[in-house]
């Protein structure tokens, strides 16, 4: 495994990933936009950097002095990413792991694979393309489904009486632990120039899922927007399970107790 790794966006997902990689002997540089997190990073043995995609500076070159760059930013700032790539091209980075989302796929009421249709001209699709088509470095794109785990509980997703649409559609979710394990395995196995979906095995109906997740954390029963129109997509995880020989820790979404503080 490459030992020098920079994580751009050391937040909800990037920080636990950094901790895992440090446990495996890697030297990790992590970025944040919050100055109060710098001391926290030092305590975790993450070399801290204050970096904003909207205002990249020459100090970025020190952050990019690594073998691998993991991009874990929720931003859809196309120009910001174009500017970032210019810096990457002048750095020692040769491999990029770009964290994307399954929202790039159209909801076509079908099972969705990595070859399925994407939304035309969507910002995230364009950003993925910037990385995938660049010849100066190798990129693997990982498209995560809806993220949950620990302080991110699905029972809190629809607060203050918000009505939940499309109750007969299906959910596509993935736990933080599975995200971290998958990203680590991609690096361990040196799998580059690929695109992967990452999603739990099961896809319960939205109605069943949100009734359960709210009940598990003691919230009032959800209210649904009843409609005859049923729009959905079911994300296939077959490719990544095969490539990594990976079994999901949280494969069955309806078997989880979402009130458990450990998850």
From TrEMBL:
A Gene Ontology term for the protein's cellular component: cytoplasm
A single MF term (Gene Ontology): aldehyde dehydrogenase (NAD+) activity
Residues in coiled coil: none
Domain of life: Bacteria
InterPro entries documented for this protein: NAD(P)-bd_dom_sf, NAD(P)-dependent_oxidoreduct
PANTHER family cross-referenced by the UniProt entry: NAD(P)-BINDING DOMAIN-CONTAINING PROTEIN-RELATED, PROTEIN YEEZ
Name recorded for this polypeptide: Nucleoside-diphosphate-sugar epimerase
Organism field: Lutibacter oceani
High-level lineage: Bacteria, Pseudomonadati, Bacteroidota, Flavobacteriia, Flavobacteriales
């Amino acid at each position: 495994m490459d030992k020098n790794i920079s994580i751009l966006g050391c937040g909800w997902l990037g920080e636990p990933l950094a901790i895992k990689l440090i446990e495996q002997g890697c030297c990790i540089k992590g970025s944040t936009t919050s100055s109060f997190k710098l001391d926290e990073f030092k305590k975790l043995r993450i070399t801290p950097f204050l970096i904003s995609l909207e205002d990249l500076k020459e100090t970025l070159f020190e952050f990019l002095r690594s073998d691998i760059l993991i991009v874990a930013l929720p931003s859809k700032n196309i120009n910001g990413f174009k500017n970032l790539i210019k810096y990457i091209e002048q750095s020692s980075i040769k491999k990029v792991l770009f964290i994307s989302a399954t929202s790039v796929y159209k909801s076509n009421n079908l099972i969705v694979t990595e070859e399925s249709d994407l939304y035309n001209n969507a910002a995230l699709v364009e950003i993925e393309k910037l990385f995938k088509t660049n010849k100066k470095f190798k990129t693997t794109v990982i498209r995560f489904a809806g993220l949950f785990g620990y302080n991110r509980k699905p029972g809190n997703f629809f607060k203050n009486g918000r009505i939940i649409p499309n109750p007969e559609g299906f959910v596509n979710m993935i736990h933080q632990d599975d995200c971290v394990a998958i990203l680590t395995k991609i690096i361990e196995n040196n799998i580059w120039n690929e695109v992967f979906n990452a999603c739990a095995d099961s896809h319960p109906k939205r109605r069943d899922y949100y009734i359960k997740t709210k009940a598990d954390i003691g919230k009032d029963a959800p209210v649904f927007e009843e409609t005859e129109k049923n729009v959905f997509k079911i994300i296939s995880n077959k490719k990544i399970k095969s490539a990594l020989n990976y079994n999901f820790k949280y494969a069955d979404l309806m078997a989880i107790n979402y009130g458990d503080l450990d998850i």
